[in-house]
Structure formats: structure tokens, C-alpha cells
Amino acid sequence: MIRISEAESRVMQVLWQHAPLDAEAIIRALAEHNDWHEKTVKTLLNRLLRKGAIHAERDGRRYLYSPLLERDDWQAEESRNLLERAFDGRLAPMLAHFTRHEKLDEQDLRELRRLVEAIERQHDDDKESP
Amino acid sequence: MIRISEAESRVMQVLWQHAPLDAEAIIRALAEHNDWHEKTVKTLLNRLLRKGAIHAERDGRRYLYSPLLERDDWQAEESRNLLERAFDGRLAPMLAHFTRHEKLDEQDLRELRRLVEAIERQHDDDKESP
DNA sequence: CAAAACGAATTACAAGCGTAATCTTTTGCT
DNA sequence: AGCAAAAGATTACGCTTGTAATTCGTTTTG
Fold first, then answer.
1. Residue B77 CA to C15 C1' — how many Å?
2. Rounded CA gap, B37 and B28, in Å?
3. In chain B, count of helices (H) and strands (E)?
């Protein structure tokens, strides 16, 4: 399982949004919010390459980079990690925590309801086909 | 804001459950699940001390350690961090993610329902007293 | 063609981390 | 009193990370 660092993940975010991109485009995209030197981004790209998190394909004198590690998988990995590390792997306390500490909007609410329904359905299925 | 590492957080977990404890008790508690040398745990305790995450009080020839950093605050910190890093700070996608990737049990379900109700009430309040 | 410019690859370097080993101080025991 | 055992303090060491700078190879350009 590929582990990427905080800074590396910023680079991935860019690639997850549009890919393939060449180094210059990535640097530009990152310059807006982070404040990294061009060389820094190049280093991160290299490390991501070595880790197998991205792929580089030659295009003339430059490379085009694309993600290999999938965003969804990475999110799953990171979420699971937090769950284990901080909440003993139990989701309920984590959810409770979010209720207490984050302000939720309409969309969050809709998402929560869908969650509840999904679980109910899932539990019903379990009963029907044992 | 105090930043503690993965390994350090294991030590904190022990102290959050029972404190104060002396080094030996902490080492014993950790030996069960991790597989750390006594010296390793001592190092971690020292680092936590320097970071101000715990407090040590002399008791005869040894120290009794207690947490200073609160568990709830740490959880909040870590959760927020994940939310920002991995989900652009938006809760809904994160919740959706959990639906798709984690198996939820009865207790999670109850917790979720309570959550939904709490939020609905909260939203109603907003409407009534603008 | 020689030099400059650009992109990529290699190297740098301090701080943090995981994982201890060694050193120092205190103290209980003979 | 002298020494071994125990607890804590200091030091170690290789790896990762954040943050670049330097070097190398290839084009482009005067």
C-alpha cells in the first residue's frame, strides 16, 4: 500500500482534478495556493514516481504525469487510518464527534439520511438472504 | 497546537484511559498490543513531555504521567485535518465515503439517527429564531 | 557552432520519527 | 560503605519529509 506524505498529497490533488499534466502546469496550479518553489514540486513529483503513485509519459522534451494511485482508494486509506488511530476503529464515536464539532449544512444532512437508508437496506438484505 | 506522532499517540491512548500512571505501567499496557522495547516507550514519554502533551509528577523514585493534551481536542484536530486534506473540508463527501466503504453496525445506525435528529432540530431552531 | 536556456535527475540538509543503546543518578541491599 | 539494580536522561542512527540548490543533458538561438 502506497503511503504518500502531506505535501505529496497536494500534488496528487492537482492530478486527480486534471490529468495528464506536465510539470509546469502542476507547478502553476500549486503556486496559487501553496507557495512552493518550482524545484520543490519537481522533487515531490520524483518521489511520487518512485513510490509508484503516479506515472510519467514522455511527450517531446517534457513529461506528462498522471495518477496511478486512485483518489478514492487514498481517501479510504486515510479515513480508515484516522478511524483506527483516533477512534479505536469504531465509527459511531467518530460520527458523534463530527456532530458535536462540525457545523452541518443541508447537504450534509441529506447525505446523512442517505447513509441511514443505505444501512437499513443493507440490514434488511442481511435478514432476507441469510 | 501540539502535534504528536503516530507512535506518541499510542502512548497517549493509554494515558487517556487511566492516568496518572508510572512508566512501568505504561510500558506494560503498551507491551500487550505494540511490541516496543521499554527504552522506546521512555523515549516517547520524553518527547511527549517536551511537546507539553503530558505532565510528569515525581512520586518517590519515579514519575507519574498524566495527559495535558485532551483526547477530545486531539480527535478534533486529527479529524479536521483529514477532512481538509482528503475531502476538501467538505463533510458530505466524507460521509458518503463512509457509506460506501465501511460496514456499519446497529450502534452506528443509532448514532446516525440521533445525529440526523439533532441536526434537524438545530435547523428548526434556526428558522424559528432568526 | 558555441552559448544559453530549459527540463529532468541528482544531491543537500535540517527536523521529525521509530526504535533503541548507553550513560548517569539514585537507592536498596549486603 | 560499596556496589548492583532501577529509573530517568542523553545520545544514536537510519529513514522520511519539507524545502530547495546544483548538475547534467538537450534543445534552441545568436
1. 22
2. 10
3. 6, 3
pTM, 2 dp? 0.87
Strands (E), A19-53: 21-22
Rounded distance in angstroms from the CA atom of residue B16 to the C1' atom of nucleotide D8: 22
Peptide bond between residue A20 and the one before it cis (omega within 30 degrees of 0): yes
Residues of chain B with Cβ-Cβ distance to A6 below 8 Å are: 85
pLDDT digits (tens, 9 = 90+) for B67-103: 999 999 999 999 999 999 999 998 888 888 877 788 8
Q: Which grid coordinates are listed for A122?
A: 443493507
What CA dihedral angle connects A38, A41, A47 and A50, to 10 degrees?
Answer: -80
Q: Which residues contact A34 (CB under 8 A, 6 or more apart)?
A: A10
Q: Are A83 and B98 in contact, with CB atoms under 8 Å apart? A: no
CA max distance for chain A: 60
- DSSP conformational letter for B71: H
Rounded Cα distance between A41 and B56, Å, is 42
Q: Does B107 touch chain A (CB under 8 A)?
A: yes
Cβ of residue B73 closer than 8 Å to a chain A Cβ: no
Distance CA A74, CA A2 (A): 9
